[in-house]
Amino acid sequence: MRVLVLGGSGLFGSLTARRLAGSDIVSELAVAGRNQEALARVASDIGEKARAVQVDISDEHRLASVAADFDIVVNVAAPEWQVVLPALRAAIAAGTDYCDIGAFAFTTEKQLELDSAAKERGIVAVVGMGLDPGVDNLLAVHASRRFDRLEDVQLCYVFNISEFLTDLPGALEKLRSTGHVDATLLGTLYVASMPARTFRDGRSIEVDARENPVEMTLPDDGIVTGFPAAFSEPLTLPRYLPSLRNAMSVLSYFPPPLNELRFRMGQRVVREGLTPHEAARSFLETVSADPGRWLPPVAKSPGVWRMWVVATGWKEGRRARYTCWPLGALYSTSIPLTVATLRILRGEVRARGVLPPEGAFEPASFFEEAGQHSKEEDRGKPLVGERFE
Description:
With 389 residues, the protein is an alpha/beta fold. The chain has helices at 11-21, 36-46, 60-67, 80-94, 105-112, 115-121, 135-144, 161-164, 168-178, 183-190, 233-240, 257-272, 276-289, 291-294, 334-345, 357-360, 363-371, and strands at 2-6, 28-33, 50-54, 72-75, 97-100, 124-126, 149-160, 196-200, 203-207, 214-217, 223-228, 246-254, 305-315, 318-326, 353-355, 384-388.
């Protein structure tokens, strides 16, 4: 079968393309984007199954024409708010299945509005299928099965800027010279400019993130203060977990002083009209000018990116809390995206239309297949860490 990978020359795109090319079910793979030279390098590295295709996602007519020759479009391009809607519309127009790693509530909500159009074309379109969203959605479903009645889900994320930017001057110089900034930094800064979508007392609402701090207990102990974020999980999970009363995605920058700076950049996006790239540049310049203030030394580091799920509900007549987190092959973006793509290609997703991960995949079997992509030394090890209280 034939696969078109948008954003194929990027980090996640190239990793996903290589994994897909290693599957017997994939006969041809095209890495697509705007940089022909970079695409050609990736295609050459992958081997004979791969070729480079130059295409601009904003040209939906051209993209639909290209996508019509493939069995699935895998969208790993960035920035999300510019690419997920045109790519999905092009896939629907082409009648081609689709999968992406979109994360934000405001884009996911617009994608879900295309559900009827996707159903009419008989296609499967899975949106938000990476680590988070993606694995965390499935972990929430996995957690729900530990209860007689699930009530609350908190999806927690810590982004450790001090470990992420080990070469802060280099990152700043790269941004100044090429305009490139990491998609995770860009996206988490951008969401600071908008209200957070949460699910509270059985209904979807928006809250001012800065005014609603939340304490998060790390799986290995320690407490950090996080803030609601405009991610997609609280939008989609209530559709598939009927007993759910509250759901929230909570994000913290680390070290903690950086949360103040993140919200400051978000306010500048709103008040001064800064673009997300301009906000990222200002963020890096501010940190670089006074690292003692923004990057103070800490006794214990939570890693570059931490994600875990905390669920509460009722078990055998008692209030209970269950915490779980991904391990090994699940702590990835490219592996879950690869597994999702292969499952769609094999015809294992029965539903049609625009689906979040929890609407397309059963957690246990999905995790089992992801484990087949584990490193040799991790084979047979647990893929989910857990604690029940």
